[in-house]
Amino acid sequence: MTDNRVAADYQAMDLSKARLFDKQVQENFMPAIVATARQIMDDYAITDGICVDVGCGTARFAIELCRHSNLKIYGLEAVRAIYEVAKMNVEQEGLANRVTPMLGDAQAIPFENEFADLIISRGSYHCWENRVLVFKEIHRVLKKGGIGFVGGGFGRYVSETELERMRSLRDRSLKDGAKAYQEPDELRKIVQEAGVSNFRIIDDRSGLWAELKK
Ligand SMILES: C[S@@+](CC[C@H](N)C(=O)[O-])C[C@H]1O[C@@H](n2cnc3c(N)ncnc32)[C@H](O)[C@@H]1O
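Above: query sequence and S-adenosylmethionine SMILES. Below: predicted holo structure tokens.
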């Protein structure tokens, strides 16, 4: 089940709230973004070609990935105000030729079959209304030989102090009864239902992720 309260919080954002969201990401969660980008590069070494970031937020993750690769990155974001901030961030960083934010829904990824070498999605899947459909879309858009890395967490390279600090900030921001993440078995079931056969669930210090291979 989707935690619709989380999704509604994003949908309700205007430009000033989206800017505040970006400020909070920068102040509180950059170690997770830096660590996860490094982890993806170490594990998959996909440094060239096309990457799609599903639920890219304000593009901080895409911007960080540019620092480690030559990837051309398309960031898909459903909320207009967040997408506007993503565009501003990319321009401010001088990366408009490398990162293209796009307004759109993960449930209908606006790319042809086998378009991307790497598809990443961090901290977005708990918002998706129809997660099976999104995993089907991700699998469709992946090239043969491509990798999908979808889930949530802080990356294995964060220090214990950073991990504890970010966990506690995240948990405080959750509303009563909301869960930070899926259970591994739920995630496994969703990916299987999407018809993806070559995948594994990673549930460790780095977070909870589905690694898809095609
Ligand atoms: C916690 S933020 C994570 C942002 C970014 N991936 C990061 O690591 O900083 C989740 C983002 O997913 C976006 N999102 C949620 N549902 C979406 C959907 N169906 N399609 C595209 N984006 C979506 C939200 O609007 C939000 O910007």
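The chain has one domain: 4-213.
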